[in-house]
Amino acid sequence: MSDGLKEYKCPNCGGILVFDSSTQNLKCPFCHSEFDVDMIKQYDEDIAETVNNELSWTAQPDGEWSQQEKQNIREYVCKSCGGDIITDETTAASSCPYCGNPVVMVDQFRGSLRPDKVIPFKFSKQQAIQKYREHVSDKPLAPAAFKAEKHMQEIKGVYVPFWLYDADVHAKARYVATRTRSWSDHDYDYTETRYYNVFRDGDISFDDVPANGSSKMNTAMMESIEPFDMRQAVDFNMNYLAGYFADKFDITADESGKKANQRIRNTTANSIESTVSGYTSVREAGMHMRLLSEHAKYCLLPVWLLVTTYNGKKYYFAMNGQTGKMIGDLPTDGSLYARYFAIIAAGVSALVFAATYLLKLF
Amino acid sequence: MKRIIKLFTILAVMFMMSVPLSTSADTALIVDETGELAPERLEICQQQLQMVSDKYDVDVIAVIAADTDGKDIVDFADDYFDYNGYGRGAERSGIIMVIDMNGREMYLSTRGKCIDYFTDYGLETIADEVYVFLPGNIEVAVAKYVELCDRYINAAITDKPIDFYYNRLYIHLNDEKGNPLNGHFSVYDANGDYITMIYVDRGEGYVDIGTEDTNAVYVIRCDNITDKYNRPADVTVRGSEEYDISMVAERAPYDLLTGGAVSSSSGILAALIGCSIMKAKNRSVHSKYEADRYVERGSFNLTNYHDHYMYSKTSRTARPRETHSSGSSGGGGHGGSFSGGSSTHTSSSGATHGGGGRRGF
Q: Where are the domains of chain B?
């Protein structure tokens, strides 16, 4: 097209298309493919609408932001015994090291730092310990040290700060899909590949996508104890914290939102791509996502935590305080591994040997 | 009276002398139309031919012809034999060698018992040995002819006619239960020289070996046999009946090496898999990269969609050419010997003749 209007590119080879008046089609002078004019126009629009981008949050929690405290150490006085309690800047509830009474640092929850929701603990300490026992017992290669009873008593209940994201997402996606057909004659095998421009435009909404808000907690572990059932969440009240440990967030909603965005993007892309069917192959060629509305909540979620030291390394276990799901990686005991290996190898070898001998296979 | 008896006696003697007697003692077994040979030589040839002829009661004749009067040497030989009264007994048994000095050819023709005594192969091998002496040394050629006739007739009478035989060695290969097996065999002669190979497929296999000796000795060795069977021992055979060979192979004992290797690798593999599964149970912490569980129910919908065909590409690959595979041996049959025999034709006189050994010189 030579009069200063838009140039259209050939989908096959990228050359500039020219209008062929005899066929009324757009034709590529390099690869000689022909295309319907309307189809090319639509293809061009689809490309423009599906430029890859990143989801980004401009969200703020329902409350206001305030600056993080600069100090690393906080000092409190126990109301029961008057003892000095030293904690880090994020601890929001603890127990007094002198008299054992629960302590709540009320300041940590002032103003904009007040959580929107909390899910109270459903599992008691004894129940948590029982879950831990079950967790380590069905693992034959776990070292015996993890099954030591005395140590299990050290399990502690912590309210972990989470950001929960609601999102309405609008996505435009473009795919290049193929259908292949094969046939043969006497001399050759033929394969024909037909290329299609596939466009999808859709909406999807998410509720309460969780993201870890505390740098003290391992994000993979917090993801592994999902899901929490937010229908059992209640409005925040400090009384729920008594007897447990709690931290306030030290990862901003923006920062932890990046992980949530990644998850939202993947689920959105998968949902949209699942609507493309009937093709031999499908390749995503463009994905443009926009947040129509976003909303982040600050929530405290119940987790039972246990730290075990073995061979100089720390091993962490976490249990969802609402559902009871227990996770935590265990190391492999080398001697146990060797013992099982030898038993299985010997047993199977003997069986196979007997079978081949009796069946005269060799 | 005395005169009448004398006259009568003379007439009787004359009469008796004019009646031809059996020509045995007086037949010219060597005829030289060319005058090449000196009379003494001719006499020696005649004596040689006479000896062998009387020995076997057949006429062994040699004719040195100046030319064949335009006839083909085959017809010339047949006719010369038939129309000159050669041949002994009711069948007129005999063999004639014609050396055509003009056409530079030799040929052998047989009749009666000699048809069977001299096979096509026999006549060819005799001619091979005789024609080398022609045309220079006719005497030696005749002497060689006499010697070979003696040998060949002797063989035919005492054993069998000298011929090119095919000894068929037939192998049946089975295990102790009678199941057919496959194998490769090598055949060696009595000196240990390799002759040929026999492929045994589904228990049966054979080969035909060409030789003059139907009692030849062969050594059969198994080179290869179906998996898990021991190769049977070498077999030495001779003579027609023995050429049908049955072999039984024993099952090899359990191969500890392979059995042990397979068992231990299975054990190790099972242990690796089992322990890996157990080790994997120790892991329960996994990052999440999707938010499927948090999708608001029913919130997903497409507002716009289109699928448009753009273009197509076609590629092709050449198909491989078909190759022909040949079949293998097999088939029913037995060991034994099969020969070429003697072919015959009818001469102008209506007689049946064998013939061969046509050579130019």
A: 20-162+342-360, 165-249
Six-digit token pair at A336? 């146990």
How far is B95 from B106, CA to CA, in rounded Å?
13
Q: Which CATH number does B165-249 carry? A: 2.60.40.10
Determine if residue A5 is left, alpha or beta; phi over 0 gives left, psi from -120 to 50 gives alpha, anything else beta. beta
**Mind telling me how many Å the CA of A195 is from chain B's nearest CA?**
5
Query: How far is A61 from A65, CA to CA, in rounded Å?
Result: 8
User: Residue A229, SS3?
Assistant: coil
ipTM of the complex: 0.81
Q: Most B CBs within 10 Å: which of A262, A349, A361, as the mutation test of the B interface?
A: A349
* Per-residue pLDDT at A64: 33
Residue ranges in chain A modelled with pLDDT below 50: 1-2, 58-71
Q: Domain locations in chain A?
A: 1-49
Whether residue A202 and residue B284 make contact (CB cut-off 8 A), yes or no, is: no
State mean pLDDT over B284-302.
93
The residue in chain B having the minimum alpha-carbon distance to the alpha carbon of residue A164 is: B294
For domain B20-162+342-360, say whether CATH 3.10.310.50 is its number: yes
Which amino acid does the sequence have at A317?
F
Alpha helices in chain A (DSSP H): 37-49, 125-137, 149-152, 219-224, 253-273, 334-358
pTM: 0.61
Distance CA A110, CA B271 (A): 58
Torsion (CA) A296, A298, A300, A305 in degrees, nearest 10: 70
The nearest CA of chain B is from the CA of A143 a distance in Å of 11
Distance CA B183, CA B245 (A): 14
Stated as kind and residue range, the H or E segment containing A160 is strand A156-184
Written as six digits, the tokens of A103 are 């302590």
What's the one-letter identity of residue A328?
A: G
Higher-confidence residue of B203 and A248: namely B203
User: Per the structure block, which two tokens stand in for A352?
Assistant: 């196979």
Cβ A337–B264 below 8 Å, yes or no?
no
pLDDT of residue A56: 63
Rg of chain B over CA atoms, in angstroms?
A: 41
Tokens representing residue A135 in the block: 């967790």
Dihedral angle over CA of A269, A274, A275, A276, nearest 10? 100
CB atoms within 10 A of CB A345: 22
DSSP string, A299-331: EEEEEEEEEEEETTEEEEEEEETTT--EE---P
